Amino acid sequence: MNQPVTAALATAHSNIALVKYWGKRAGCDPELNLPAVGSLSMTLDELRTVTRVAPASADRFELDGEEVEGKPAAKVFAHLDRLWRLGACSGPRPRCAVVSTNHLPTAAGLASSASGFAALTIAAAGCFGLAEQLDDPTRARLSAWARMGSGSAARSLWGGFVRLDAGTADDGSDCRARPLPSPRPWDLRLLVVHTARGAKQVGSTGGMESSRLTSPYYPAWVESSAADLDAAEAALRARAFDQLGEVMEHSCFKMHACMLATRPALMYWNGATLEVIRAVWQLREAGGPVGYVTSDAGPHVKVLCRAEQAPALAAELAAVAGVHEVQRVAPGPDASLELT
Q1: CATH 3.30.230.10 residue ranges in the chain?
Q2: What pLDDT was estimated at residue 204?
Q3: Torsions phi, psi of 260, nearest 5?
Q4: pLDDT digits (tens, 9 = 90+) for 31-71
Q5: What pLDDT does 5 receive?
Q6: Is 12 within 8 Å of 118 (Cβ atoms)?
Q7: What's the CATH superfamily of 188-329?
């Protein structure tokens, strides 16, 4: 019954998993894009995607001011087809113009797919008449739909800290993201340490499947993740910074160990990545500003720290050879929707 009546503009912020997600659940409908493990993330204030979806005479996708065709565009419009079906809309999907701007590097290990597919999902839902505002039930429903485009996108519907449970149901009904409210604000920062420019060579989706099929460490990675999630959530609720940091680092290095044992090995880091990690550890051990590291499927390092120590720690890391930039990012807000 629903038909697009207006253009819609959505903003969704990237998120970085403090407890990592790596791997798809086997034996389920691939359309559901169910993760093998849960994850816990921090939404980022500055790193975001803004996407406008509007009815048009023909499908067209523009990213950062340039028209995009081929596989990336096909993935965008396949997601619009999916949303049209999930919303039980009648008739063929109307053609749409999708105009998106990434306020972060694309495909570089900074979760541009999370903010990108979250923003696309929200804007399309607004355009298709499936959402007029993001109340709690709507946000939860769109989170599950965003997950089908990108697993990490499910978490970008909310600000602050968010947990995504992997679930066990074959239909994905218990694979849900939920915000983790704090009894009072916790003034943390995530330093995003850029150690390279440009896109990474191996995409996350292909890398995950290679790890599942070939890494001898993959079963242990999956089996041990639930305990990390519970420990990280408990640390957040108790505002136990060192406990949260230790769980975060442990999750990161387990994931990268699984990647390294994949055939062929997945090495997303470069020399500067290792030097930044080493610098954070040395500062912590020497009584300097305290940070804890994590890194996704890319060369950049993210460092969790207290807000008051962020300037000093950022200055130290900016001096590491090979570092291009250090961003100091606060926890970000909920995703938003505007009908235009």
Answers
A1: 8-185+332-339
A2: 84
A3: -65, -30
A4: 999 999 999 999 999 899 999 999 999 999 999 999 999 99
A5: 67
A6: yes
A7: GHMP kinase, C-terminal domain (3.30.70.890)
CB 21 within 8 A of CB 219: no
CATH 3.30.230.10 fits 8-185+332-339, yes or no: yes
Which residue is listed with tokens 């008051």?
308
CA pair distance 216, 237, nearest whole angstrom: 34
Q: Looking at the DSSP assignment, which residues form a beta bridge with residue 178?
A: 163
